[in-house]
Amino acid sequence: MKRALTGFVGAVLEAWQELRIHRTRVLLSLIGVAVAVCSLTTVVALGAIVQQANEELSERSSGRPATLYLSAYSDGTGTGGGSGEIDGELMDATWADTLERYDVTYGSRVLSGSQNVGFVDGIVPVGVQAVDQPYGEMHRVRVSEGAWFTPGDALQLAPRLIVNQIFWERIGSPDLATHPTVKLGGQGAQPTTIAVVTGVTPVASYETEPSMFMLVDQFAAVQAADPTGGGGGAGGFVDPFAGGAQTQYEMWVPPALAEPLIPLLQRDFTAALGEGVQVDVFRQDFAQYGDDPFLVTKLVVGGIAVLVLLLGALGLVNIALVTVKQRVREIGIRRSFGATAGRVFFAVMMESVVATVAAGIAGVVAAVLVVQSPWVRDLVGQGMITDFPPFPVDAALLGLVAATAVGALAGLLPALVAVRVKVIDAIRY
Amino acid sequence: MSLLHLSEVTRTVIPPDQPALTILNGVDLTVEPGDRVSIVGRSGSGKSTLLNLMGLLDQPTSGTLTFDDRPVKSYSSAERDRVRGARIGFIFQQFNLLPGRTALENVTMPLLYASGTQFWRRKAIAAEMLEQVGLGHRLTSLPDRLSGGEQQRVAIARSLVRGPSLILADEPTGALDLDTGQTVMELIDDVATRTGAALVIITHDPAIATRARDHYRLDRGVLRRADAGVGERAAVLAVGGGGAAGPGASGASA
Question: What is the dihedral of CA A416, A420, A426, B2, to 10 degrees?
């Protein structure tokens, strides 16, 4: 035991001494490994960030896991909806009851429409997504200026608007603290409604048109006051609640509760809306399928990283082999002073491992600096990530483990060569 | 109890595409603790092969080689290495210091293969050893900054640092001038006497050989004992040196 300890410490010391003395050569040979580890770690870490970006994008469009969507339509045979339409108020009331019954905090109605907005250059129809207040949290809506709707906003007489960057710039990028207003409606002789802009959402590079979020009830009120205001033309008014099918109802629940809730919601809504109404409840978030939706991305990224590392290892083996051949005499001298074959093998191996671990640490540090740099974050996230993930610990660990493994593999061949050195010939050499 | 004993030892090598070559033939030699043995022989007589056998770096083709009365063949490879490290110290003609390492690191090197106190106190032990050979002020000097004599003194310190019971010196003064050679030999003698180690010197320099108490000469693989008498010593050395074959031999006959 004592001998094993001194043997191990001695081998590490020998390896360290060797590295210290040949630091230039070692440094040069390790640049490849450090770069490879840096690439591997960076790629894995960026993979995690890209995955987060993808998740967030998915969550923005179809909600966070688990988001249940509910829709109901009448097949025209029952009592619920007369001529195939479902009473919007009844639907809303049922929805509110349901959220309360199951103690669901995050529930939102979602309705897409259009609303005329008066800009300085004229009245323009602007796409509206009418939602309830919890929608912002449910869909990770990112607000770059101001803030998302507050629960109190629904009580305001002047509707609150969360507009996109294009909209905001079009009204002159006013300071939101000054409560900037815009006029809604006002086509021809129709009345106008003054609305207050309380938040600004960033836009993706592909977006070119102004758009905005409104609270559902305020949108409905504005539309009711100005029936021509939506759709941008006479007769364009569409009653948003004429038939529950046009309004989407969604709730964000713990994933484990999603499955048991589906039949309960179906039962409750069917009971409330009467016979002849078909109620559909389904999940649409990215995690609805048990499989990892990013598996392919991960495999491709991992494959590239392994290739990079193998190239680094090849370079290291090459240099290590040449070096050992130059060190035959030294190995002979050490053997003559009592170094066993095992010890020589271990020491040469340790040289490689100690060196690659050092290179690995350097590579991981470089990777952290690269991945955490604001420039790379902007490039990868495209400004669309809300919760930028911290540098993944598993990526850093993977980098270190990979470096150690490469060191051991690259040290194996030279260590075998070193053990085969004939002491007598080596000293005379 | 003998420290090292060779009985009827033969060493044969088979060069590629050539018939077997007998390098050592029926060598008998016994080294007791504290002995001073010199072996002279001209180049190619088998001196280095004999040294390698005595240093447990090689195995005889036939015959018996024992260390501490135990046949070397019964040692495992690792045991042989460990016995060599702990009990045998080498001094080479070309010093064979590790390049790029300081004098202290070179002397510390054998202690890296020790265990216990010798391992953990290696720096202090090595520094003390260098002090003993008069190099206490050159601990951090690299070999290429040391003179030949100083390098050999570092090599001597390295060979003695683990307190060996057998010192094998292969032409220890071969790369040194006459005066330095004498000084180095006195140092080896002195340290060996102090530590009680047996000293086997392989040389073709009669001046060095005469310092030993037991004299042997190796001629074409055959080892013969030479009488220790002063008159005969010169004659033995002259024969051992191979007549006019080497500078040492011609010096002795002169």
Answer: 130
Phi then psi dihedrals of residue B238, to 5 deg: -65, -40
**Distance between CA atoms of residues A353 and A357, nearest Å:** 6
Instruction: Name every chain B residue with its beta carbon within 8 A of the beta carbon of A345.
Output: none
CA distance B6 to chain A (A): 19
DSSP tag of A123: E
Beta strand A160-164 with A211-215 is antiparallel
pTM value is 0.60
Q: How far is B42 from chain A (nearest CA, A)?
A: 17
Residue pLDDT, tens place only, A69-105: 888 877 765 554 444 567 778 888 888 888 888 888 8
Distance (Å) from the alpha carbon of B234 to chain A's nearest alpha carbon: 30
Choose from A1, A3, A6 for mutation: most chain B CBs within 10 A: A6
| Predicted confidence (pLDDT) per residue in B98-148, tens digit | 888 899 999 999 999 888 888 899 999 999 989 888 888 989 999 999 988
Residue of B169, B253, B219, B200 lying closest to B41 (CA atoms)? B219
Query: Could you count the other beta carbons within 10 Å of the beta carbon of residue A228?
Result: 19
B58 touches chain A (CB under 8 A): yes
What is the ipTM score, two decimals? 0.82
CB contact under 8 A, A343 and B109: no
Q: Is A81 helix (H, G, I), strand (E, B) or coil?
A: coil
